[in-house]
Amino acid sequence: EQGYKAWLQYTLKNDKQKDYYSSYLRVITYHQESEVIDAATKELSRAVKGMLGISPEIKKSSIDEQSEGVLLTLNSHTSKAYQSFNKELDRYQIEQMGKQIIISSNSDKGILYGVFHLLRIIQSDESIEGLLITEKPRNQLRMINQWDNMDGSIERGYAGSSIFYQDNQFIGDEERVEDYARLLSSVGINAISINNVNVHKVETTLITDLLPEVKKTAAIFRKYGITLFLSINYSSPIEIGGLTTADPLDQDVQAWWAEAAKNIYTQIPDFGGFVVKADSEHRPGPFTYGRDHTDGANMLAEALKPHGGIVIWRCFVYNCLQDWRDRKTDRARAAYDHFHPLDGQFADNVILQVKNGPMDFQVREPVSPLIGALKKTNHLLELQVTQEYTGQQKHLCYLVPQWKEVLDFDTYANGEGTEIHNIIAGDVYDYQYSGLAAVSNIGADLNWTGHDLAQANLYGYGRLCWNPTLDMQELTLEWIHQTFGKSDRLVDSLLKIMLQSWETYEKYTAPLGVGWMVNPHHHYGPNVDGYEYSVWGTYHYADRDGVGVDRTMETGTGYTEQYYKPNADIYNSLTKCPDELILFFHHVPYTHQLQSGKTVIQTIYDTHFEGVEDVKALLDEWLSMEGEIDEQRFKAISQRLSDQFEHSKQWRDMINTYFYRKSGIKDEQDRLIY
Ligand code: BDP
Asked: Which terminus of the chain is more solvent-facing, meaning fewer CB atoms within 10 Å of its CB: N or C?
């Protein structure tokens, strides 16, 4: 096994169970026809062949006819639900009655989700006796963002080149794209943007000349209930439209976008809409014309509105040409400062997409104060599945524990109990659209994600989109069972390895929430001062006396004020601020005593030594599992983990030596080599 099938292995180890399941799965009957139902029957049949070695009979029957086996049926005939992002239409029921399993839903998409759920149960070797499950997603939009460029590269991609593009053309490998759609749909993803948010010249034409190719791609995803979006270049009217301006208030510009939208919808009637990175990191946007984000987003929204389309406008907007000497300008403040004053001014079909932290996907950041503060504006939480700052899929870093913390964070926006997961589910404020989006971690590598274990991040992301309150351990076990089987030894060890890996990674990399001690540009490996004296706004301010960024209200950047109380007070207070974020919020002497009782400097030393030991333990645990899984994946993972071990030592030594030299304070246990 080379990992291609990921969690859709469709093998059953336990022979005894085969007869039992076969008695339910010999026949697949469906009542109504649609391409999604067709995909559902094909998936079932493929799985049954793989797991049970039989080819099920597939037949259409009328509603009153008696049938046996698995029955797929729509409660009503509202089968075209793609573009609507309606949680009620995604709801499904699985019920065992006699020798029949009935999967019913209000939409064909729901039936497909039900089929994947049933297969999850069978792959995990669980009983189907007495099954009665009703499921509905907590989140309306469950989106994946590809950062693929048409030259075949992937921005922040760590698993080979793009599966969509090569040499500025579509590859047209329908099978591969369809297999990706299957993986996404199996965990409930319902939207995808297929090109990088940084849109270059060639991708600008995706909305015009390249539309026939986009249309083909949309057709593949449509079968799996996934709506296609495109990232657009804000300057398109200039770049490809022959206009001299992209000013959102200019009538020719408005007409240009309206016409572009009309053309897109003629070809792709259920097109999702545009993802926009504007006025950020040198991307064009409304600022050039003295307009603001509402002008920019609402103009595009107007163009898409007649067709039911959406504008997803990213809030990753900050000054990337900052002066590191000026502590008053704080990049962490930027998203809130830009967008909070505009709350309530965006059109109904605009969604603001907010990164989970105020900086940029570091291993540890506080939760963005903007989420929860936008009470009258649709928004999506943005996560990064691709491991840009978390080991680039060379290191194991299972991100579900991090995301769980984000989702469970209580913002207090509407009093106690206003957790992030409630806000983005649309349970707190009356949003028209909300949910999650995340940057994908897949590429053309045969196992999709480079590191086989990084598949778990994609799986976990999808499952948390569906239900953010899923128990972390259960979710991880689901993935292990389907991907590797149920051998007790393997399951216990792998569960332990996965659940510890984020904390382990955090220990040997940048300490106490400070972030950014990575090599500039590619962001892999340690470099304590790599970004310290540059323009990006990413500093740690380490000197001989202390380290950390003062973001307090009294003496610092005032960032803490962006939170609701009591979070604002907790973060602002040197004694109450959680240890793991202390350097994010405070500049402290090395001898400052943390809540743990240790000093900052000793904590830096200790965590870095521990981190490396943890990787060693993780590697040993994995190596002891030889024979429990197929050799190919075992070897590939072993190699990555042993590389991680070597690299973690480099992190440890560089960070520790740096802080010893800055502070002159020795390690209490005298372990440093300098
Ligand atoms: C940063 C990445 C950069 C992306 C940017 C973004 O380093 O490649 O373009 O985020 O989200 O994390 O737009």
From this structure: C
